[in-house]
Design goal:
alpha+beta
Amino acid sequence: MRFMGWCFMREVDYNALSNVMMHAVRDAAHGVLRDIGEIENIQRRHKGLRSYTTHAWQRVAKSLVEALSRARPAFGLVIRGQPYRKGEAQDEWIIDPINGFTNFCRGVAHCALSVACRHGEDIVACVLYDVVRGELFRAVKGRGSFCESKRIRMERGRPWPESMLAMGGASMLSMARLSQQTPSTAPSPVMPHLRHTGADAIDMAWSACGRYDGYVGVCVPFASVASGMLLVREAGGLVHMSPVSSSQYARHRSSHLRERGAYCTIVAGTPECYRRVMDMMATMD
């Protein structure tokens, strides 16, 4: 009975953390839309862009860290592009302050704030806030995925040629290599509709709610897809993640993420989409 009570307390605690994360991302997002408009003006002046975007990223990161650390000061911190900060607890925050940062730097209105909570090896809660559309995606392990207050589920799956697949990192290059490896005498592989938007977290959230059928990311930062992994799983999708061990990424790894790598390759989607992509990935190995 005591064990059951302990488990219940953990579930309630992670639901509470979801509320903490929601407040944190909404507060940190203030000004990001204004920043995008200002970036367009700076681009026309052709100076000061790098300084402005760096300051905006730092402002969002600082706001998130302060809010989350105030709520749970013992948690560790994994922030994209920053050294790992070890905490006293087994839990840690995984933060991508502005997912789709390259879009943001160009004034492209397609970016999001992403926060996930990891307990041991498991992502147990996450919040993703699409700044431009005002959509907030959230999930708690075992409790489902939501867009605002609406429960979201992945579609049962369209036929492979009619599917729409989001790509991240070097995925497009990998697909191009696959087509080059196909013998000239063999029929070209049937491919779905491909999209590369530059915002991995949003791509995975859109997969979770059925706008895409799946997502493939090759050599993408783990912090960028941590939230999406839980969103897809809780929406009924399949997820496979493996670390990237290429020497070109070794210098980017933190000591804490050495086993899994700060960069990873990830496949997520409906069962049909997942199976097809995994078969293609095996062909490229």
